[in-house]
Specification:
mainly alpha, three-stranded antiparallel beta sheet
Length: 363
């Protein structure tokens, strides 16, 4: 079994080869006069993925095959190797090998329980240790700079960023919010669902990541002010859209006075795509030259700043919607280390001061 794990760490073990489009691919589309949107219709590949293909970014083998197959109606003898090149993917990560170990161990343990095996050989094997790096986040100064630039942006985008940073919400949770989830008076947000997108199904609402993800968080006054402003703008959008406003967003509402259901909608009331914040945030940090960070990194930033400024681990863990306290400890250990250094220095100052005072009295 140990030899099996060693094989998993060798180069070339991965089967999920990545493909990258050659320059001939874009030339082919021009020759055939096929736009990316035309290709999306015949291949059923998401348009964002096709845009990545056009930029020669890596995609999965199955996606490359799907694209080539869709073009066979135009060129019967088209070959994937003529327009895509294989990118070497290398070995499995230590984390992936560890997941394999857990799965194999669970299967063998079940075999022991069923008396098919006398013991579980996986228990005698130690999987590779996973070295966890620091989660990407902004420090306090960078976060303040971001918020200053954010004031120049549309109120809807301001709301998305502030909810991720101040409420530590996940992207899907933000995009699945309804106005009835907001308590303006108490400044609380009830997180109970998330928006998700699947190519063949489209955008839909689902249960959050886990049961502990259902939570209520309090936000600062400035976040509620932004949401109040956004609601006014949305009401104006509905008025201007008139009969084009999609009323189906309100079909489950029981309160006749509630104008709409979802907070983040397009000009005609349609629920926005769940990945909109990620796309807009990338453009935002590029525009202002901010350090590279994903939209999810804002959630990491909020949690890191809370822990670094003395918030207790239990309350932060509940606020983040983690299923276990250990999850927060494992992910944000870097924040706790810096806090530990500060505590050590604080204790050192206290005791050294007392020691000096005692020596002074003896003198």
């Amino acid at each position: 079994m140990l030899e099996f794990y060693n094989n998993l760490s060798e180069d070339g073990i991965r089967l999920d080869s990545k493909y990258k489009a050659k320059k001939e691919f874009n030339e082919l589309l021009k020759t055939l006069e096929i736009s990316l949107y035309d290709l999306q219709k015949i291949s059923l590949v998401d348009i964002r993925t096709l845009k990545r293909v056009a930029k020669s970014e890596t995609i999965s083998m199955s996606t490359a095959v799907k694209i080539i197959d869709s073009l066979k109606q135009n060129i019967k003898k088209i070959k994937i190797e003529d327009y895509f090149e294989v990118i070497e993917t290398g070995k499995l990560s230590d984390q992936t090998i560890k997941h394999h170990h857990r799965l194999i161990s669970a299967m063998l343990e079940k075999a022991v329980k069923w008396q098919l095996l006398l013991n579980n050989p996986a228990e005698r094997v130690e999987p590779p240790k996973v070295v966890k790096g620091e989660v990407p986040h902004y420090d306090e100064s960078q976060a303040v700079t971001l918020l200053n630039y954010l004031e120049k942006e549309p109120i809807k985008f301001q709301a998305m960023v502030n909810l991720a940073l101040y409420a530590q919400m996940r992207e899907g949770e933000i995009m699945g919010l309804e106005w009835k989830d907001i308590n303006m008076k108490e400044r609380t947000i009830n997180i109970r669902q998330a928006a998700q997108y699947i190519p063949k199904r489209g955008v839909f609402i689902k249960e959050p990541k886990n049961e502990s993800s259902k939570r209520t968080v309090t936000v600062p006054k400035n976040v509620m002010e932004i949401l109040k402003e956004l609601r006014k703008i949305q009401m104006q959008e509905e008025k201007e859209a008139g009969t084009r406003w999609k009323k189906n967003n309100n079909e489950q509402n029981t309160d006749a006075n509630e104008v709409r259901k979802f907070i983040f909608t397009t000009w005609d009331g349609e629920l926005m795509h769940p990945y909109t914040p990620t796309k807009q945030f990338k453009k935002f940090i590029d525009l202002y030259g901010l350090p590279k960070l994903t939209f999810h990194g804002l959630r990491h930033t909020g949690i890191t700043l809370l822990l670094g400024n003395g918030a207790d681990i239990d309350s932060v863990s509940r606020r983040a919607g983690h299923s276990q306290r250990s999850t927060t400890l494992n992910i944000y250990s870097h924040s706790l280390r810096s806090k530990d250094v500060a505590n050590a220095n604080k204790l050192g100052n206290i005791l050294n001061k007392s020691k000096k005072e005692k020596l002074g009295k003896k003198a």
